Amino acid sequence: MERRIALKNMAVAFGGLLSLPSWAQNWTTESVAAQTASRSYLSAADDALLAEIAETIIPETDIPGAKSLGVHTYIQKIVKDCMDTQAQDALENGLYTVGDISKKSKGKDFVAMNQDERTAFLNELLTQGADEETKTFYNLVKTLTIKGFTTSEYYLTNVAHYQLVPGFYHGCVPISTSK
Fold first, then answer.
1. Is residue 21 part of a domain?
2. How far apart are the C-alpha atoms of 66 and 54, rounded to whole Å?
3. Domain for residue 120, yes or no?
4. Is residue 143 part of a domain?
């Protein structure tokens, strides 16, 4: 009886392995990116605003910034899939607040400001009587921006020099006989 079950499971696994190449044949970088973009959590304007806020927190220097590494997509994915509705609402409301206040106080969108204006605006927003919701939003975005940046492939391979398997074995090492 157990042999029949084992043979049946092997047949199902073998059939799955045979159909896998045809199933994954049409995967390209563009198709995966288009599929990810179609499931975006925020609107295009909010996505652009979040990308610029993340870029303000970690700007591009001699290494890529948060925007070019796609940290804003990471933030959306974490908030949408891993956090409660309170955090989701804080993100949406905070983006609306930043966009609204920047238009009213500076006369232009946050996205249209340069790096220095954005930094000054965010500092001003937090220091001049920001409510708890705005502070919660900024802390959420800042924390996730730093986490997304420091866990990106670029950062781990080029800055932190992460090695999956530390301590390689070198079997043939010459030994000096001098004492």
1. no
2. 6
3. yes
4. yes
Token look-up 């301590």 returns 167
Its pTM stands at 0.71
8 Å CB contact between 71 and 145 = yes
Cα 138 from Cα 120, distance rounded (Å): 14
Q: Which pLDDT value is given to residue 149? A: 95
Q: Domain of 126?
A: 42-159
- CA–CA separation, 173 vs 129, rounded Å? 64
Q: d(Cα 114, Cα 105) in Å, to the nearest integer?
A: 15
Q: Is the pLDDT of residue 38 over 60?
A: no
Q: Does residue 49 contact residue 110 with C-beta atoms inside 8 Å?
A: yes
Alpha helices in the chain (DSSP H): 2-24, 29-38, 44-57, 71-82, 85-106, 115-127, 132-150, 153-154
**Which tops the pLDDT comparison, 162 or 95?**
95
Provide the number of structural domains found in the chain.
Answer: 1
- Considering only residues 117 and 29, tell me which one the structure prediction assigns the higher pLDDT: 117
pLDDT for res 28: 65
Q: Which residue carries 């409510």 as its tokens?
A: 131
